[in-house]
Design goal:
The protein is built from nine helices and ten strands. By secondary structure, it is α+β, with helices and mostly antiparallel strands. The strands form two sheets. Strands 1, 2, 3, 4, 5 and 6 form a six-stranded mixed β-sheet that branches. The chain has a four-stranded antiparallel β-sheet with strand order 8-9-7-10, with helices on one face. The protein is globular.
């Protein structure tokens, strides 16, 4: 079984839209112990990708098809995904699955980065899941030392949010940074996180520029953020384009206590920790 870790945006600074239609960003990516499980085996006649209980387009299937289109000539392959990462939750589950397929089947190819980038901005960073400072539209990945201990409580929402809709709302309400602001943010985050400190030590830098847009579309997320703070989170914000809210705690026992202190309507909260790079 291959693990495809969820991705937590500890911070997300967003700039203007680029010529290719994507937004320039700077983000601190942290893979989590929360992960999908992927089983890859031989298929009878043709490739197949199945994810029980999940409907709609599958990025892992697109990854396998892209490998074929690029000349990969492996035998017919079956990919079965056990979804543990909430869907459309801002946790990069689809990108993680696609990256895991590329990593396992095409790891010795020289064009995997190119294939990943064509599939989506987050797929490149998930090819080698590790703590990293990400730039561009997600294609520039600078690995950092693993952070010191912390844990996280995730509060997913019943209904997901489309990334494109959140970015469109961010454009509408005007929460984006200019180039100088992005560079200042990157410099501050690199200095704070580059030494392996716990994110709790630089909580003032943990900002998500898409949070206002996500809250504009789904105001109920604010209630989850407030609940996390009341439960003892040192910092609470939205991850990625949302709608998942998360709170940071010093360690897993504290996160367990925090999750237990949440109101009953958040009984689906998930306690997780950083996935250490090996």
């Amino acid at each position: 079984m291959i693990r495809a870790p969820a991705k937590l945006n500890l911070c997300l600074y967003v700039g203007d839209r680029r010529e290719d239609g994507l937004h320039e960003l700077r983000s601190l990516f942290c893979p989590l112990s929360l992960a999908d499980g992927i089983a890859i085996s031989a298929a009878d006649e043709r490739d197949e990708v199945v994810s029980p209980g999940v409907e709609g387009p599958n990025l892992a299937a697109a990854a396998l098809a892209a490998l074929r289109a690029a000349g990969w000539d492996g035998p017919p392959t079956r990919v079965e995904i056990e979804k543990r990462i909430p869907v459309a939750a801002g946790l990069g589950g689809g990108s993680a699955d696609a990256a895991a397929v590329l990593r396992h089947l095409g790891g010795d190819r020289g064009d995997v980065d190119r294939i990943a980038a064509a599939l989506g901005a987050d797929v490149t960073s998930q090819l080698e899941p590790r703590f990293a400072l990400v730039g561009g539209a997600g294609e520039r990945v600078a690995a950092l030392d693993d952070p010191a201990e912390f844990a996280v409580v995730l509060v997913p929402q019943e209904e997901g949010l489309e990334t494109a809709a959140v970015y469109a709302e961010a454009d509408r309400i005007g929460v984006l940074r200019d180039a100088a602001g992005l560079e200042d943010a990157e410099r501050a985050v690199r200095e704070a996180a580059g030494s392996g400190a716990s994110p709790l030590e630089y909580a003032e830098l943990l900002v998500n520029d898409l949070e206002r847009a996500a809250l504009s579309l789904r105001p109920e997320i604010a209630e989850a953020l407030d609940a996390l703070r009341e439960a003892g989170a040192v910092a609470a914000l939205v991850t990625g384009s949302g709608p998942t809210a998360f709170g940071l705690f010093p360690d897993l026992p504290a996160a367990d206590q925090g999750a237990a202190a949440l109101p009953p309507r958040y009984a689906g909260a998930i306690v997780s920790a950083p996935q250490r790079y090996i």
